[in-house]
Amino acid sequence: MQFSSFSISRLPRIIFGSGRIKEVPALAAEYGQTALLITGKHSFCSTPRWPSFTASLEAKGMSWLHVTVSGEPSPELVDQTVSQFRSEAIDVVIAIGGGSVLDAAKAIAGLLPHGNSVMDHLEGVGKNITYRGPSKPFIAVPTTAGTGSEATKNAVLSVQGPEGFKKSFRDECLIPEYAVIDPDLLVSCPRELVAADGMDAFTQLLESYVSLKANPFIDALAWSGMSAFKDGFFAAWEGTEPTASHGRAAMAYAALLSGITLAQVGLGSVHGLASPLGAYFPIPHGVVCGTLVAAATDVNIKAMLTREPGNQALAKYAQVGRLLTGHAEMDDTEARTSLTSLLTDWSEKLQLPRLSSYGITETDFPLIVANSRGSSMQTNPIALTDDEINTLLVRRL
């Protein structure tokens, strides 16, 4: 183990466990009397938990306003919401939903005290104005196990289409005050969402583990998350009790750790490609991760064996192969081969769509490759050539 220098940025205060959403009203009341609730259209507010939750807020002497988010959030949505609620003297923002809901709420909380456009701060496409805070206090309550947004400082916003983009509003001021992870909230997730979100969490853990910025502290968290994924993912996906409850808890934990690890050391080629793919085509982020991770892992391994045979990520991929297959006796070569085979098998078992299902063709590859070189690609364990990235895409077309 090598102990080079590293830094860990601020984390939210983490509250984890079954039923712990009941603690959110008391936490919110610490900040004042008026809450802005941001949810998806159906995932929480159409369940019996919604009236119980709002009644608990009122019992704490709080009034509340409500806005819903559907689909991936756009800068326009953020700006409109900030404009609508800025005069309401909001004391705390509470987001209960999937990654899109949490990302939108993170940006809204950040801009409510200021009232300016999120485009002033959005990486790569905005005015490049430094955000200096403060943000409104923000409590994040995930209802899916995928993005880990409850533990990160970035709000991912997108505009879809030929001139589209998928970029982050990013600052430590945006980190939630509390991340409240209640695995019981995952029970309403449909099977296909469990598959896509779970593969997003796994990909984030794997890419963090082999990141160029990896360090022993984050390695330990990523390993713990991947172990939990192995233990619980298919139980959660299959949805058969009593094992499904354990699976949901394992996946909620894995997703949380994936958010922590990606925020500290970055990601890799899958997420580098997720940005242009999600901007130009109607492909869900989790599907991108699940459908590309096997090919991306194989391309990375082959590139390192050819050009950087001493790259420490090769040994790490082998370790993950032994972990996921349960075959501790395999040598590194066997373990890496078994890893890529297993990931390929998973994508087929989960019936994750190929890229062509979303209208993507080989003629789109030059545009995708050209726009894949963002921050995530910069921490991939080896710098991939355009041809290697193209090969990766072809394999999942």
Task: Spell out the blueprint of helices and strands.
Blueprint (H helix, E strand, L loop, with lengths): L12 E4 L7 H6 L4 E7 L8 H11 L3 E7 L5 H11 L6 E6 L1 H13 L26 E5 L11 E6 L5 E6 L7 E4 L9 H19 L6 H23 L4 H23 L3 H12 L4 H23 L4 H14 L6 H18 L15 H6 L4 H4 L7 H10 L2
Parallel strand pairs: 1-8, 2-3, 2-4, 4-5, 5-8
Antiparallel strand pairs: 6-7
Helix pairs in contact: 3-4, 5-6, 5-7, 5-9, 6-7, 8-9, 9-11, 9-14, 10-11
Question: Please, could you describe this protein's structure?
Answer:
This protein is α/β, with parallel strands linked by helices and 397 residues long. The protein contains 14 helices and eight strands. It has helices at 24-29, 49-59, 75-85, 99-111, 191-209, 216-238, 243-265, 269-280, 285-307, 312-325, 332-349, 365-370, 375-378, 386-395, and strands at 13-16, 34-40, 63-69, 92-97, 138-142, 154-159, 165-170, 178-181. It has a six-stranded parallel β-sheet with strand order 1-8-5-4-2-3, sandwiched between helices. Strands 6-7 form a two-stranded antiparallel ribbon. Strand 4 (92-97), helix 4 and strand 5 form a beta-alpha-beta unit. The longest helix has 23 residues, at 216-238.
Task: Provide a concise account of the structure shown.
The chain has 397 residues and is of the alpha/beta class. The chain is 49% helix and 11% strand.
Number of strands: 8
In spatial order, strands of the major sheet run 1-8-5-4-2-3
How large is the share of residues in beta strands? 5-15%
Q: Choose one word for the global shape.
A: globular
Number of H- or I-type helical stretches: 14
Distance between the termini: 39 Å
